[in-house]
Specification:
Number of helices: 9
Order of helices and strands: HHHHHHEEHHH
Number of strands: 2
Distance between the termini: 42 Å
Strand content: under 5%
Oligomer: single chain
Radius of gyration: 18 Å
Shape: globular
Strand order of the largest sheet: 1-2
Number of domains: 1
């Protein structure tokens, strides 16, 4: 299992980084769209969308939504609305986590809410990543910032949790995660934000302060994304959302934090004028 995970990471990580840095906007959009479709298939199984007609409607909604998102890329007001809806959903998800296992009827999400939730998870993330990557001048750096913030929050949480963790963060969903670990992850993300704001984006004063606050929100939502997909997996009684990545599970397993964090970072940078 470890060897599989290592080989997958060795192949996938450089390819992803090369695409972000060298890829044209349309190439990145095409690859991200494919990944979103994979996530959509996994979501349909995870949310137990029953019947070929229901799954067809969900797939059609995601495909049509991505075409619309790509088409309104120059319409800032429409873009901000979609990104804002994505952020709003993840804030609601944080409340859902606190209330687990409430909001589940007969052990699963009712089909119409499951379709809506799937769209809110996937479409704003698709647009968020494109918005970050297509920013004039430093688009790839913004995507790297997103990934590094998530990595920093996850790594900081791991080490802080193992060293100091005593109080469970969400024991009914992910017993291994602790409040102390989450605090460690947030502090690590803050250090990354300060360094990136000063030396990469050249920020200072109030703008730097706002940037660091935004990055903390992004890191916090990355934790929410991880826990939310874990919640749905626990409810569906499955270990992984899929098996497309050997040793790593499914696309949703690996990208849960990215899906939650990308709309917030894209929208936040725009509102801050960065």
């Amino acid at each position: 299992m470890f060897l599989q995970r290592l080989l997958t990471a060795v192949v996938a990580a450089p390819a992803a980084l090369a695409l972000i840095w060298f890829g044209t906007p349309w190439a990145v959009a095409a690859v991200v769209a494919l990944i979103v479709l994979l996530c959509a298939e996994e979501w349909a199984r995870l949310a137990q969308l029953d019947g070929s007609e229901v799954r067809f409607v969900f797939r059609g909604l995601i495909v049509a939504g991505m075409f619309v998102m790509y088409g309104v890329a120059v319409d800032f007001s429409a873009q901000n609305l979609v990104l804002g809806l994505g952020v709003f959903w993840w804030l609601l998800a944080a409340i859902w986590l606190r209330g687990y296992p409430a909001f589940f009827a007969d052990g699963k999400i009712p089909q119409f809410p499951a379709i809506v939730v799937g769209a809110l998870v996937l479409l704003p993330a698709f647009l968020g990543i494109l918005t970050l990557h297509e920013a004039p001048g430093d688009g790839p750096l913004r995507v790297f910032l997103l990934l590094i913030l998530i990595w920093a929050a996850d790594t900081g949480a791991y080490f802080a949790g193992h060293q100091f963790g005593k109080h469970k963060l969400a024991p009914r969903i992910s017993p291994g995660k602790t409040i102390e670990g989450a605090v460690g992850g947030m502090l690590t993300a803050a250090l990354v934000a300060i360094a990136g704001g000063l030396w990469v984006f050249g920020l200072a004063g109030a703008t730097l302060f706002g940037f660091v606050l935004l990055c903390l929100v992004v890191a916090g939502l990355s934790i929410v994304g991880d826990l939310t997909i874990s919640m749905f997996k626990r409810q569906a009684d499955v270990k992984d959302t899929g098996a497309i990545l050997p040793g790593h599970g499914g696309a949703l397993d690996r990208l849960d934090s990215v899906l939650a964090a990308s709309p917030a970072l894209a929208l936040g940078l725009r509102l801050l004028g960065i």
